[in-house]
């Protein structure tokens, strides 16, 4: 029997997830990657001196149930133990987070509220966040909730619910800068609520995180790709998609310049910027309004730096977020001597510092960037003032991560498209799973694979683990809220803005 052919475009979490499952189900899968290596933004490579670098350090959070299940299936051990984190401002240490799962579990959000150690933020400011709990109850990740909150900015949301100016400045805005990668006035309130709930507030342990003990490309993607190839899939690098061939509303092939890859189904698994480039070159995709609408979506600049210092410096926590150094930029720094196997015995200190919404930094020279990073590190950890940088890496990533801007939800694509056999995946795709970031990308890859299985009637669907169920009091509150909302719709005139 002739194998059914599937072409997957993009070799990040979504594309590898879709390819792996479909290959195991007996499909003839071709995976096309525009870059030199699989992995997209999380792939790593070597400097001219043989040092490992990557496009930013990526955490793996407690709710990443599907990625952790994959790691178990691959029988690899890429992660650190659960780690504690800190938060710094130009005034010094601001917040320390415990390992929440090691503490007595309290009903959400009490554990987050009581166990997080704020060094300077007054209790009265923290209490001002309580009215915001209604928005978290009201936002249930439904299509209706997204449309209700997506036109509101995060800043408006916090202001409308009475969050104090200091709490917003010292807590919520920093979360946005390193979670949604933009300041509050540029973030959708819907995306903000979804991100906060998934990573922090749904359950006490959700903020707990592990890190890869090297680059994700080396520790996870390399053994995963080996498994994918053993399952029979073909991975082709340096293939930039320029169009798809369409016959009777079905994609019959994917075009890469002079090459055409025949297909019975196609999965796109690329970021917003990559997808917009593909659409700009593709008459077939430009013929559909849903793909033309992608021009309304944007992405955010990231700057990833890695610095090698000439001495060991004591850093209290391996992962740290920073705010207040620049009005619209958030950044993180990581002690790779503690996180990465490669640097455990390094005589000096190795630091990864990543900047989000880093537009104003990309045109600086490498030397200017390195000096700025060293200065900011010394503000947080004064011992860096005496240290010398002996090697460095600077990676500029323009339009690298998804921008969940106010009003953007209406332009994002669902997994199914107007083409019968073209499916979408990635961290910017509309889905109801409730996950975010790498976990969402991987989940949407599995969802796209399941749509192919259903369409081509071959194989079994992938098992997708749901997010942990809401705690009982949250379920009750959401149920009551829905009854009240439905009752209001039935008896009140429909003329207010959602």
TrEMBL record:
PANTHER family in UniProt: OS04G0560500 PROTEIN, PROTOPORPHYRINOGEN OXIDASE
Residue stretches making up the Amine oxidase domain: 14-452
Coiled coil: none
SUPFAM superfamilies associated with the record: FAD/NAD(P)-binding domain
Name of this protein: FAD-dependent oxidoreductase
InterPro entries: Amino_oxidase, FAD/NAD-bd_sf, Zeta_carotene_desat/Oxidored
Top-level taxonomic group: Bacteria
Pfam families in UniProt: Amino_oxidase
Signal peptide: none
């Amino acid at each position: 029997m002739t194998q059914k052919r599937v072409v997957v475009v993009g070799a990040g979490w979504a594309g590898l997830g879709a390819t792996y499952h479909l290959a195991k189900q007996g499909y003839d899968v071709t995976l096309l990657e525009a870059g030199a290596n699989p992995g997209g933004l999380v792939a790593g490579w070597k400097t001219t001196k043989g040092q490992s670098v990557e496009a930013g350090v990526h955490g793996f959070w407690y709710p990443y149930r599907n990625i952790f299940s994959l790691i178990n299936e691959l029988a690899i051990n890429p992660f650190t133990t659960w780690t504690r984190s800190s938060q710094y401002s130009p005034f010094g240490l601001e917040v320390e987070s415990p390992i929440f799962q090691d503490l007595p579990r309290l009903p959400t959000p009490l554990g987050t509220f009581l166990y997080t150690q704020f060094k300077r933020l007054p209790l009265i400011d923290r209490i001002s966040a309580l009215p915001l709990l209604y928005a978290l109850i009201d936002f249930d990740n439904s299509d209706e909730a997204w449309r209700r909150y997506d036109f509101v900015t995060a800043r408006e949301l916090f202001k409308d619910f009475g969050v104090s100016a200091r709490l917003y400045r010292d807590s919520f805005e920093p979360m946005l800068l390193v979670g949604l990668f933009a300041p509050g006035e540029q973030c959708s309130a819907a995306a903000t609520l979804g991100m906060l709930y998934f990573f922090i507030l749904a359950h006490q342990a959700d903020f707990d995180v592990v890190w890869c003990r090297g680059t994700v490309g080396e520790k996870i993607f390399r053994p995963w790709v080996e498994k994918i190839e053993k399952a029979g899939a073909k991975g082709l690098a340096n293939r930039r998609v320029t169009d798809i061939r369409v016959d009777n509303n079905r994609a019959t092939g994917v075009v890469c310049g002079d090459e055409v890859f025949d297909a019975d189904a196609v999965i796109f698994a690329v970021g917003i910027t990559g997808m917009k480039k593909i659409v700009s070159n593709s008459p077939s995709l430009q013929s559909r309004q849903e793909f033309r609408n992608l021009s309304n979506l944007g992405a955010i600049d990231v700057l990833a730096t890695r610095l090698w210092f000439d001495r060991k410096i004591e850093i209290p926590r391996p992962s740290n977020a920073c705010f207040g150094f620049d009005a619209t930029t958030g950044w993180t720094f990581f002690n790779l001597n503690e996180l990465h196997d490669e640097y455990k015995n390094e005589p000096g200190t190795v630091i990864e510092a990543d900047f989000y919404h880093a537009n104003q930094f990309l045109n600086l020279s490498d030397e200017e960037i390195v000096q700025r990073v060293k200065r900011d590190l010394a503000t947080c950890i004064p011992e860096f003032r005496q240290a010398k940088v002996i090697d460095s890496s600077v990676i500029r990533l323009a339009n690298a991560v998804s921008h969940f801007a106010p009003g953007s939800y209406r332009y994002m694509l669902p997994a199914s498209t107007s083409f019968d056999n073209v499916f979408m995946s990635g961290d910017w795709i509309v889905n109801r799973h409730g996950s975010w970031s790498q976990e969402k990308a991987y989940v949407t890859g599995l969802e796209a694979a399941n749509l192919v299985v259903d369409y081509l009637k071959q194989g079994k669907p992938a098992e997708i683990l749901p997010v942990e169920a809401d705690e009982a009091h949250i379920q009750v509150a959401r149920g009551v809220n829905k009854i009240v909302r439905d009752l209001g719709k039935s008896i009140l005139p429909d003329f207010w803005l959602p």
